[in-house]
Amino acid sequence: MGTFPDTPVTLLARIAVEATGQRTDEAAWVRLFNLYAPAIRRFAELQGTPSAESEDVTQDIFLRLVAILRGGRYRADAGRFRCYLATLVRNELVSRWRKVQARAACVPLDAVPDEAIATLPPEAAALLDAKWRLARHEAAVEHALTKTALSRQSREIYRAYALEGRPIDEVTSAFGVSRNVVAQVKTRINRMVASLEAEYAE
């Protein structure tokens, strides 16, 4: 079982009930935010957004997402949610860039179009998807190393061996453990990361 018991599909189904006016599922919203916010922040940074601004981007994306989902405007049959979300983030970043350019050129902000960005060519869509996959992987690694019950030594062994690429003999010597222990730590945390990444798969 993954760290998150609810899949994005389940969360979206629970949130979709709001569009009918039957109830508000705050727990589902919190779960959705906790699941996607780290990947959105990292994705924004990979697109060149400064770290300080990526938090604002994340908040703005979720405000827009609230309006879209509560308004019943997201259609699950239109494609994977992660692709929809990645495009939403990209559009937000493009909109911000346009506004900065408009200010620099002294063009009134009213002149900046808010319509959806045109369909991406296949090569650009593939690059966008690759960046989203990298962002979700990095977010999953960070979650595994900071928000799970791993020992401090396991975290440090993983960082040294798997992330920094230090030779296994150097790692075993530094931490006073066997090669087998280092391999087990890497395997265990890689499984955790894969499980976390699977939560983004929809």
What are the main properties of this structure?
single chain; about 200 residues; mainly alpha
Describe this structure in words.
- It is a single chain.
- The chain has one domain (8-198).
- Helix content is 69%, strand content 0%.
- The chain is built from eight helices and no strands.
- It has helices spanning 8-16, 26-46, 51-70, 81-104, 122-146, 152-163, 168-175, 179-198.
- The longest helix is centred in the middle third of the chain and has 25 residues, at 122-146.
- Residues 1-6 and 107-120 have low confidence and may be disordered.
The profile of the biggest β sheet is: none
Helix content: 55-70%
Query: What structural class do helix, strand and pairing data support?
Result: mainly alpha
Mean pLDDT, nearest integer?
75
Q: What is the overall silhouette?
A: elongated
Unreliable stretches covering 5 or more consecutive residues: 1-6, 107-120
Question: So what's the oligomer here?
Answer: single chain
Over all CA atoms, what is the radius of gyration? 20 Å
Strand coverage percent: under 5%
In DSSP terms, counting alpha (H) and pi (I) runs of 4 or more, how many helices?
A: 8
> What is the H-and-E element order?
HHHHHHHH
Number of strands: 0
Number of domains: 1
Task: Determine the N-to-C terminus distance.
Answer: 16 Å
